[in-house]
Structure formats: structure tokens, C-alpha cells
Design goal:
2 domains, binds zinc ion, two-stranded antiparallel ribbon, five-stranded parallel β-sheet, Rossmann fold
């Protein structure tokens, strides 16, 4: 047993790993961060969805087809995919991550995003960019949750992360507080980027939750306007 393994085993003995959601002891070998019941309760997206924005359809039958919103107006991003539905254990885990236990949940959620996200995306990316927060919001929360997730994905995939490629130049109200039709106006022209950072690049935008899609759509618009070749979006969860 190596030195490092010895200490890892000793730490497990004195501080047995607990499920990050329900605090049950983790015993089975495949349980790393979440116990089996909690992992199984993470509502993953399966079944037919909109190939463009990733919206899952209620019916589990049938093939993928464009949703009415994407038919009405194609989004600025090429595709958007989410690992799970923003509900149940997924919502609980993201909430804990953003407001309580950043250090505990950064690696587990980033790993879930990297592992599950791999199979959801069809294209390779030159660079990963987090959806930026306004400086004032970073001061309030202490960190940008999207950057933390992007870093973990970049590390596991071996893809560069451009933390400052995209910037939020205008203060915006939290999207969740606004009715849908105001969300679009709220984030309009809120972002900017340097063309040299994005020109001809295939970019993956990472965020924690996809709500109406207007935030990532606005980011994608700016990136495309500055010469990005392709913009895909990957989030941990999306609202229905
Ligand atoms: Zn659990
Ligand atoms: Zn769609």
C-alpha cells in the first residue's frame, strides 16, 4: 500500500465517506459521492427530446423532433443538453452546491457533468467557457458556480477552460425572479467577449441550470457575432 493510499484508507476509517445528499454511509465500491438510492433518484433526461435545445418531451415514445419554440425561432447556440431535470435530488444537490457546500459538491457535480455530458454532445470543442457572473454577484456568492463546473469538466476531458473569454458587462436581475417574457429583455446585451478568444473556435458553454435558455442564447449570440464557429451548451439540469 502506497503512502497516499495508506492515508486515504486511514481517512476512510476515521471519517467514513457519507452520501452528500442523505448522509448515509457509503459502502458499496461504486458509491463515490452519492449512495445508490440518491444516485438513482437523480432525475436524468432520457427519451425523445428536441435535438436543438434539448427539451425533453413528456411522452417517452417516439423519435426526437424540434420543439415548437425552436421551430418558431432557432436559438443562437447549435445545441443545448442537460444531464437531468431540475427537480428532486438534482435540485437539492445544485442548491447545496450554490448556497452551502461549494467545496464538498464541486468535484462530485463537476464529475457527473463531465461523465454524463460526454455522451450527450456530438461535437468536439476547442475551449470550454462558463456563463459569466457579474462582478457584484461573485462578491455576493463568493464564486461562480459555472466556472467551478467548467474547470472540473475541462480537467476530466483535457479541454482548455477560458475563464475570462466571455464577460457579463451589465448587471441583471436573477432570471428566476422574472416572468418568461421579461427574461429575454433582462439579459439582452449583458455580455461581451474578445474576438481573438473565440474566432473560428468550437465552444462549449457550461452553466448549472438551463431555465428559459435566454441567458445561454444571449451568450451564444455574442460568441457567434465575434466569429465562433460553433457553440454548444451543457448544463447539469434544466427546468421543465
Ligand atoms: Zn444518499
Ligand atoms: Zn427546442
Amino acid at each position: 500500500m502506497g503512502f497516499r493510499n495508506f492515508f486515504a484508507a486511514a481517512a476512510d476509517f476515521f471519517f467514513p465517506p457519507l452520501c452528500l445528499l442523505c448522509r448515509a454511509f457509503l459502502t458499496a465500491p461504486h458509491e463515490t459521492y452519492f449512495c445508490r438510492p440518491c444516485s438513482e433518484a437523480l432525475p436524468l433526461i432520457s427519451g425523445p427530446l428536441c435535438p436543438r435545445c434539448g427539451m425533453p418531451f413528456v411522452s417517452q415514445e417516439g423519435a426526437d423532433h424540434l420543439c415548437s419554440r425552436c421551430i418558431g425561432k432557432a436559438p443562437a447556440f447549435d445545441t443545448a443538453r442537460a444531464v437531468g431535470i431540475y427537480a428532486g435530488a438534482m435540485k437539492q444537490a445544485i442548491h447545496l452546491f450554490k448556497y452551502n457546500s461549494r467545496s464538498l459538491l464541486a468535484a462530485p457535480l463537476g464529475t457527473v457533468l463531465a461523465q454524463q455530458g460526454r455522451g450527450l454532445l456530438e461535437h468536439e470543442h476547442d475551449v470550454i467557457m462558463p456563463v459569466p457572473l457579474h462582478a457584484r454577484r461573485i462578491r455576493q456568492r463568493g464564486f461562480n458556480q459555472s466556472l467551478v463546473l467548467a474547470r472540473q469538466v475541462g480537467k476530466l476531458w483535457g479541454v482548455a477552460v477560458a475563464a475570462e473569454g466571455l464577460e457579463r458587462t451589465r448587471w441583471t436581475d436573477p432570471q428566476t425572479m422574472l416572468p418568461e417574457r421579461q427574461r429575454l429583455r433582462n439579459v439582452r446585451d449583458a455580455f461581451s467577449c474578445r474576438a481573438t478568444a473565440v474566432e473560428k473556435k468550437s465552444i462549449l458553454l457550461v452553466d448549472d441550470v438551463y431555465t428559459s435558455g435566454s441567458t445561454v442564447n444571449e451568450c451564444a449570440k455574442v460568441l457567434k457575432r465575434n466569429g465562433a464557429r460553433r457553440v454548444d451548451v451543457l448544463t447539469l439540469a434544466r427546468t421543465l
